[in-house]
Amino acid sequence: MIVTETKLREALTKSLDNSVWKKEGKNDKVRKFDETLDIIVNLRDIDIKNPAHKLNSEFLLPHQITTPEQFKLCFFTKEDQLVAAKEYPNVDVCDIDALNDLNKKDAKTKKKFVRTYDSFIARMDLMRDVAKVLGRNLGQAGKMPKPMPKGYGVVNPNDKVEDIVANFMRRIIVQTKRAPIVQTKFGRKSMDFDKNWENLDALMKFLEGHLPNGYSNVKSIILKTTMGQAVHVEEGELRRAKKGGRR
User: Fold this and answer.
1) Angle between the N-to-C axes of helices 107-115 and 96-103, in degrees from 0 to 180, rounded to the nearest 10
2) What is the rounded CA–CA span in Å between residue 10 and residue 231?
3) How far apart are CA 20 and CA 134, in angstroms?
4) Global pTM?
5) Quick check: 183 pLDDT over 60?
6) What angle do the packed helices 127-141 and 96-103 form, to 10 degrees?
7) Is pLDDT above 60 for 247?
8) Which helix (H) or strand (E) holds 84?
9) Measured between alpha carbons, how far is 238 from 244 in angstroms, rounded to an integer?
10) How far is CA 124 from CA 75, 121, 157, 162, in A?
């Protein structure tokens, strides 16, 4: 697929317009919650059974799309990091003693614990204990903390908590599961258009660089808000596409 900045911008504008429900003779209806901006990328010529083709990475958007009120984190840590993490209202801390207590619980309790949180962060020197106690549950839920370069969930003892939490406010998951499709969020309706665009542009460049054949592996792209009508990104003209980037 020929992906151009012009067509992406047009689709983004239209998807935001479509978030407002309009009907002749009726007042425009604006949803009462802050909708996310979502992207669906259908892929082609991809064998997702091939580990080299399968996507499963975390990506940091340029701009934050989640607020502390919208996101619940669990941080497996200790010492100074534990003290600092307690200052954040959306972060629950879990030290080695709490892990040992969890280890005594039944499978149902562990599963419920994992469901409580959107994401998990683990200090590197506690990962062995985390895997021992909750590895199966975290793996099944797709919430196992990932180390660099695949993710940002495994941190060093000297990493600053403020930077760790800030990363998770910008973090999204880019993956293909059982089908050659990438579906994730990249913005919010309440955000400035330019920030939404910069997030979308950065995500598309990330995808281009991580697909085996770049945009040649893209079949179609759809943008939409949570409740809005889907907008298909139109294909650009071949003469505008140059190897190594969009024009």
Assistant:
1) 130
2) 10
3) 43
4) 0.87
5) yes
6) 50
7) no
8) helix 79-85
9) 14
10) 11, 9, 7, 17
